[in-house]
Amino acid sequence: MFPWQQVFELVLRQTIAVFFEPIFWLIVGFLGVQYWQTKRNQQKMFGTAIYSLRHQILLAAFYGTIGGVAASLLLTVVGITLNKLGFNYIWPLALLLMMINTRFLCFAYAGGLVAVSNVIFGWPDVNVPQVLALVAILHVTESLLIALSSRFSAMPMFIKRGDGQLVGAFSLQNFWPLPLVLLVAVGVPTGNDPAGGIKMADWWPLMPLGIDPPEGQKWVYAMMPVVAALGYTDMAITSLPYKRRLKSALHLAIYSVILLALALLSAKFQWLQIIAALASPLGHEFLIQLDNKQESEGKPLFVPPDKGVMVLDTVQDTPARKLGLQPGDIIYNLAGMPVNCGSDLAYAIMYAPRESSIVYERQGKQQERNFKFQKDERRLGIILVPEGHEQFYAVMTEENFAIVDWFKKRRNK
To answer: 3-state secondary structure string, the chain?
Structure first.
C-alpha cells in the first residue's frame, strides 16, 4: 500500500522549506512586476485599476502553493527524479525559443524537442519518458490552477478585431510561483537502509529511473525543494472569463493526461517515445491555435446591446462591485431614468439621489436592486463595453502557426 500520509507530510515540510529560499521571493517579486505592469495598463485605458496589486500577489502565491503541493505529490507517485531530466539542456533551449515567440518559454516545446533529439540522435543523455512525464504533470498542475483562478486576474480591455470592430474583452493572465519537491536518486551500499526512510509500495515507482546503481549499491530516493513558476495567458472575447478559463483548463487537462499516458507507456515500449516526444510540442501548439481561432472568429460577447448598456467589469470597493454586478449584465434603468448609452448612465449617476435603485438583466432574468452612493462621491464603478469611439484600445492580430511565421520572416529578410 502506498504511504500517502507519510509522503504528504514530507512534501508539506519540504514545501514550507521553499518559503525560506531567497529565490522563491525573487520569483514572487518578478511576478509582482508583471501584475504591476497590468495595473498600469488598466489605469491608462480606464483611468482606474480593477484590482489591488497586493491582492493579486497574495492570491498568486496562495494558488501557487496549492499547485506546488499537488504537483509534488504527482511527481513523487510517478517517480520523476532530477538525475536525468536534462534541465541544463531544456532551460537554455527554452530561452532560445523565447526569442522566436515569448509563449515558447514552455517546457512542452523545449522538453519535447530535447526528447525528440534524444530519440533520433541519442543526444542529449536524458530519460525521455521522465522528461515528458514532467511536462505532463506541470501542465496538469497548470490546468488545476487555471480552473481555481476563476475571475482572479481577469483584466478588462478594449480591442480592435481584424474586421475593425471595437469590442470588449478580458485578458486572462496569471503567474504563479511554484514551490516544488522533486526526487533525487542516491546510491547507497546494499543492505544499508537510511534512518527515517519511508517504505514505498512494491509497484513504485511507476516511472523507472532507467539506469542501474553502481555495483554493490542500490537507489535510495531523497526529496529536494525546487522553485519554479507557471504562467497562463489567454483572451476571453466570445465568452465570460470564468467559462473561458474552465474550457482552457479542460483542454489542457486532456492534453496532459494523454501525454502522461504516452510517457508512462513509452517507458515500457521504446517505439512509443518518438510519438510521445512529438505529441508534447505539437499537441500544445494545436490547443493554442484551436483556442485562438475560436476567440478571433467567434461572435463577440461584449458589444453594445440593442437596449440598455452592458457591463464589462466593475471596480473594487465601489457600489457596483458591492451590488454584485458582473460582466455581461445589461443595465436598463438607474434611479428611474432609462439608460441606453454611456452618456445616459453618466447623466443618471449625476442626478440620482444618494439612495437609488438599478434595474438590470442577467442571463435573461431582470432584477432590481437598491444601492447607496458613497458619501460625497458620485461614482458607481462600472466599466461599460466599448461604444466605438474610445481612444485607447489594443489591436488584435491573428497568430498563425508561429514556427511557420518565423521561417517566413527569416526568408523575407
So the answer is: CCCHHHHHHHHHHHHHHHCCCHHHHHHHHHHHHHHHHHHHHHHHHHCCCCCCHHHHHHHHHHHHHHHHHHHHHHHHHHCCECCCCCHHHHHHHHHHHHCCCHHHCCHHHHHHHHHHHHHHHCCCCCCHHHHHHHHHHHHHHHHHHHHHHCCCCEEEEEEECCCCCEEEEEEEEEEEEEEEEEEEEEEEECCCCCCCCCCCCCCCCCCCCCCCCCCCEEEEEEEEEEEEEEEEEEEECCCCHHHHHHHHHHHHHHHHHHHHHHHHHHCCCHHHHHHHHHHHHHHHHHHHHHHHHHHHHCCCCECCCCCCEEEEEECCCCHHHHHCCCCCCEEEEECCEECCCHHHHHHHHHHCCCEEEEEEEECCEEEEEEEECCCCCCCCCEEECCCCCCCCCEECCCCCCHHHHHHHHHHHC
Domains and CATH numbers, the chain: 4-297 (no CATH), 309-385 (2.30.42.10)
Q: Is the dihedral of CA 159, 162, 167, 172 positive or negative?
A: negative
- C-alpha grid cell for residue 244? 473561458
Residue with grid cell 444618494, as numbered in its chain: 354
User: Which residues contact residue 65 at a Cβ distance below 8 angstroms, ignoring those fewer than 6 apart?
Assistant: 15, 179
Given this model, what pLDDT does residue 399 score?
53
pTM: 0.88
pLDDT, tens digit, 9 for 90 and up, residues 243-282: 999 999 999 999 999 999 999 999 999 999 999 999 999 9
